[in-house]
Amino acid sequence: MRPVRALADALAGEVLTLDGGLSNQLEAQGCDLSDELWSARLLADGPEQIEAAHTAYVRAGARVLITASYQATFEGFAHRGIGRPEAARLLARSVELARAAGDRAAGEVWVAGSVGPYGAMLADGSEYRGRYGLSVRELERFHRPRIEALAAAGPDVLALETVPDADEAEALLRAAAGCGVPVWLTYTVAGGRTRAGQDLAEAFALAAGVEEVTAVGVNCCEPADVGPAVELAARATGKPVVVYPNSGEVWDARERAWRGAGTFDPRRAGQWAAAGARLIGGCCRVGPDRIAELATVAENPWSP
């Protein structure tokens, strides 16, 4: 059902389960994601597949759905010959599809409009490196039109996600200022630092005094990096923490494939919640079966 409470109000008293990786669920449904637009291609070519993927996560217990707009940008659509009016319509569709899946649930389901980093548009893995050679002002100009288009579609929150460095975080927060929709900010991290190698506490502190920021945290990182990041985020900002790591496998950008063994363990969700996490889910390669396990733990973290 459509939520009757603001997400911030819900987080004041609950731990909410996020969905998992959208791309892996779409692949499980038989979709080809080899295009540079990745899952965003299906906003035009297969919207029913996106809605079905969202529905799979709702059935698994997800209470917050992240839209299929991570890699959807005006620039990326332009490379496919899609003009700005149609691109704006497709961005709005990403919110509509998640909302349609959530509205059929028995309980409240919130929709988070995904705003991926600049590197996602490049489709070369640079979102795991950052430092694109662009200024904060240039990055702000890149992000603002998409943020405005998504905000106009009426999500409950914007997910400024998989951010590799503090400069891009600053640009995203500037671009989102005054958009009329609350946001969360999540970095992708490694070894207790941003992917660009910056101090993580300082990176989180950028959001500390920003009223629009509902939660801060990490996503698309190894599960082992989550625990320390939760404590840092809570201490640096005083805000609720959001975490959704990937499976623990490593993305090979050249081969466009995941390598290594998975280490995602839903049982860790109780520890993360006890440390301050209030939004807990999974990212790449974490599917509905894992989210169903996580939901049981995350929403009852202090049960014996």
Low-confidence stretches: none
Order of helices and strands: HEHHHEHHEHHEHEEEHEHEEEHEH
Percent range for β-strand residues: 15-25%
Our count of helices gives 13
Helix content: 40-55%
How many beta-strand elements?
A: 12
Shape: globular
Protein structure class:
alpha/beta
Main sheet summary: 8 strands, parallel
Q: Overall pLDDT, averaged?
A: 94
Structure description:
With 304 residues, the chain is α/β, with parallel strands linked by helices. It contains 13 helices and twelve strands. The chain has helices at residues 7-11, 22-28, 42-45, 47-60, 74-79, 84-103, 118-122, 136-152, 166-176, 200-205, 226-237, 269-274, 288-298, and strands at 16-17, 64-66, 110-115, 157-163, 183-187, 189-190, 193-194, 213-219, 241-244, 250-252, 257-259, 277-280. An eight-stranded parallel sheet has the order 1-12-9-8-5-4-3-2. A two-stranded antiparallel sheet has the order 6-7. The chain has a two-stranded antiparallel sheet with strand order 10-11. The chain starts with 6 loop residues before the first helix and ends in a 6-residue tail after the last helix.
Short account of what is shown:
41% of the residues lie in helices and 16% in strands. It is an alpha/beta fold.
List descriptors.
eight-stranded parallel β-sheet, 41% helix, alpha/beta, 304 residues, 12 strands, globular, 16% strand, 13 helices, two-stranded antiparallel sheet
Which secondary structure elements does this structure contain, and how are they paired or packed?
Layout: H1 7-11, E1 16-17, H2 22-28, H3 42-45, H4 47-60, E2 64-66, H5 74-79, H6 84-103, E3 110-115, H7 118-122, H8 136-152, E4 157-163, H9 166-176, E5 183-187, E6 189-190, E7 193-194, H10 200-205, E8 213-219, H11 226-237, E9 241-244, E10 250-252, E11 257-259, H12 269-274, E12 277-280, H13 288-298
Parallel strand pairs: 1-12, 2-3, 3-4, 4-5, 5-8, 8-9, 9-12
Antiparallel strand pairs: 6-7, 10-11
Helix pairs in contact: 4-6, 4-13, 6-8, 8-9
